Amino acid sequence: MESDKAKIIQKIKDGKMILGIELGSTRIKAVLTDDKHVPVASGSYEWENHYENNIWTYHMEDVWTGIQKSYQKLAGQIGEEYNVPLLQLGAIGFSAMMHGYLVFDREGNQLVPFRTWRNTITDKAAQELTGSFRFNIPQRWSISHLYQAILNKEEHIRKIYFLTTLSGYVHWRLTGKKVLGIGDASGIFPVDSCSCGYSENMLQQFDGLIADKNIPWKLKDILPEVLRAGDFAGTLTEEGARLLDVMGQLMPGVPLCPPEGDAGTGMAATNSMAVRTGNVSAGTSVFAMIVLERELSQVYPEIDMVMTPSGRPVAMVHCNNCTSDLDAWIGLFMELTSVLGNEVNKSIIYDRLYGKALEGDADCGGLLAYNYYSGEQITHMEEGRPLFMRTPYSRFTLANFMRVQLYSAIATLKLGMDILFEKEHVCLEKLMGHGGFFKTKSAGQKLMANAINVPVAVMENAGEGGAWGIALLAAYMKNKEQGETLEGYLGKKVFAGKAGSVIKPDSIEVQGFESFIKRYTKGLTIERAAVASIK
């Protein structure tokens, strides 16, 4: 063991460690890996979005507080465990929530508060762009936010010099480079799978749509440059080093990989880059990424067309809501244990209640729940109202209550996935699961497999998530051999011999979920009535 520790110390001194940082919806996490892609230290920071002036947003000062504190905890862990300072790094990668709207003027000043993926305020823009492009443009995409702001005649539009995502913003501040990984870029504006750049035809169409608005820029001029996995994306500047490491120890000059969205890092962290495979990331939001064998036959407003970090076409089913309402109920149960004078650790409550859900009836005993904290495009909800319902004849038990909360968290995903299965006949051999929904051993995995009716695999590193995924992308950029693909690098050097635990669907449980989803679909009228009636 001592020799292993000595080896790690030497690698730290030699600057061979790789740093990955991801800004998720509820947590910013930093992971440091060695040259074998094994995490050796981590740090995190809890944060939340704010609903201000009818906008879901994060404050930029919280971005840097979270990054700095996460890095400080990681560096402190290295100091305590290995008694060496973290002075040099082999490579760095940044990832964050995709989509949204961050715009800056020529001097780098932020023009409006960050409008996140969670907002459903761009319906008119999304519909018009989808119609013009004949390509699905979801409400949360950056171009929808930009066009909606133009339609709204917002004052800041003429001042825009740069538009980017959260990962692109952080990367820009640390390197001075206005670039973006192709996966994240494909959530700003449609990307051409042949050129691996923004669609030239659609760029021209957009400029034509706004030609009479007297706007002093062309769209292409304000967008970040598109890069693919493995591309060099700049180095950490002196200013960037001080911004990342407030202790002033980290040296500048570290190479960075292209900044990516959480969808792309999820694919990297689960090795789901090949056709007929996919991954599902389930946390505050839930989305599935399915690598396609062929283009879809038509445009579906419920399905996004995006890219893997290496540039392969992907069908993305994205739902704004997943575990937020579930987490709120867990919080209520924690409060109950406190009132009873028997405070229980949060992780224990999660494990016990998730496990209890497996004891429930296959159809949740007739219970019904909606987890909509915000609007949901797939079910055409402009706003959300979390709801729980039952009839006098429902079997109201703790097991059924927990099962319906977990099924509610993934019900909208199921509706989107059915489009791919039933209308496009997409074949899927298995889904790789990661995110908080899968942390409790087997519970979330079993329920997801029954809901989607596809085997679901979870690896031991499922909890590391996107921070580890972006560290892998940084390692690939740093260490790839001539002509080595990302898929080959991950398959041979990271995941060789690591299949993870696989759970197959249970036919009876699948039938139970089908009964639940029929009830769920019929009950959407209740959710719509709640949105209309309760303000």
TrEMBL record:
<dbReference type="Pfam" id="PF00370">
    <property type="entry name" value="FGGY_N"/>
</dbReference>
<protein>
    <submittedName>
        <fullName>Sugar (Pentulose or hexulose) kinase</fullName>
    </submittedName>
</protein>
<dbReference type="InterPro" id="IPR043129">
    <property type="entry name" value="ATPase_NBD"/>
</dbReference>
<dbReference type="InterPro" id="IPR018485">
    <property type="entry name" value="FGGY_C"/>
</dbReference>
<dbReference type="InterPro" id="IPR050406">
    <property type="entry name" value="FGGY_Carb_Kinase"/>
</dbReference>
<dbReference type="Pfam" id="PF02782">
    <property type="entry name" value="FGGY_C"/>
</dbReference>
<dbReference type="GO" id="GO:0016301">
    <property type="term" value="F:kinase activity"/>
</dbReference>
<feature type="domain" description="Carbohydrate kinase FGGY N-terminal">
    <location>
        <begin position="17"/>
        <end position="244"/>
    </location>
</feature>
<keyword id="KW-0808">Transferase</keyword>
<dbReference type="GO" id="GO:0005975">
    <property type="term" value="P:carbohydrate metabolic process"/>
</dbReference>
<keyword id="KW-0418">Kinase</keyword>
<dbReference type="InterPro" id="IPR018484">
    <property type="entry name" value="FGGY_N"/>
</dbReference>
<feature type="domain" description="Carbohydrate kinase FGGY C-terminal">
    <location>
        <begin position="279"/>
        <end position="476"/>
    </location>
</feature>
<comment type="similarity">
    <text>Belongs to the FGGY kinase family.</text>
</comment>
